[in-house]
Amino acid sequence: MTILSEIINFNKSFVNEKGYEQYATTKFPDKRIVVLTCMDTRLTELLHKAMDLKNGDAKIIKNAGGLVTHPFGSIMRSIILAVYELKADEVYIIGHHDCGMSSTNTDHIIESMVNRGIDKSLFSTLKYSGVDMKDWLHGFEDVTESVRMSVDAVRNHPLMDNAVPVHGLVVHPDTGLLDIIVDGYANTEEQ
Question: Does 96 count as an annotated binding residue?
């Protein structure tokens, strides 16, 4: 049995037994927050519990490292939409200790791509087109500094409302302990 067939079989039972009813909510976050965090598997349930978030409380955005890497990329677009269209009043950027993005080996990733059939000559084409694979795949050295940089990218975005607090935190992936790196309330125009 494949993973997909296991998921579909479970899903049929979930729907037939109305397991979805306990998760009924609206598209607007009850706590009026948007959270950007890492896609790390250890955070899937832990972060929600550590923040006392239930289904419907927050807009959750995840990517590798919980990073804002481009001012007009999909992460920033999602944050902007959450604030202006989906009633989020605060932004939380949450990194974590022991993040895989703090130890990415770009040479190894490129080698894995080639081993899986990506033509080596494509990397020359990408470089000629202005894409530096090592820069694009590189993570960060320090999670605290990474969180600060993403907070600054959101807070200083030309389309972000200056009255929206942008908080930066780091969570411990084993205990759920949250450390405040940036208190967004201290940096808003309206206090």
Answer: yes
Rounded Cα distance, 158 and 129, in Å = 28
Residue 54, domain member (yes or no): yes
In a domain, residue 1? The reply is: no
The structure's pTM equals 0.93
- Ligand-binding annotation for 48, yes or no, is no
Tell the residue number behind the tokens 């955070």, with chain if given.
43
**Counted domains in the chain:** 2
Could you report the per-residue pLDDT of 118-157, keeping only the tens digit for each?
999 999 999 999 999 988 999 899 999 999 999 999 999 9
Q: What is the DSSP string of 82-136?
A: HHHTS---EEEEEEETT-GGGS--HHHHHHHHHHTT--THHHHHHHHTT--HHHH
Mean pLDDT of the chain: 96
191 shares a domain with 119:
no
Residue 97 marked ligand-binding: no
For residues 177 and 94, state if they share a domain.
yes
User: 111 and 148 in one domain?
Assistant: no
Calpha distance 161→188 (Å, rounded): 9
Binding residue per annotation — 152? no
Each residue's pLDDT tens digit, 80-126 = 999 999 999 999 999 999 999 998 899 999 999 999 999 999 999 99
- Domain limits at 124? 105-138
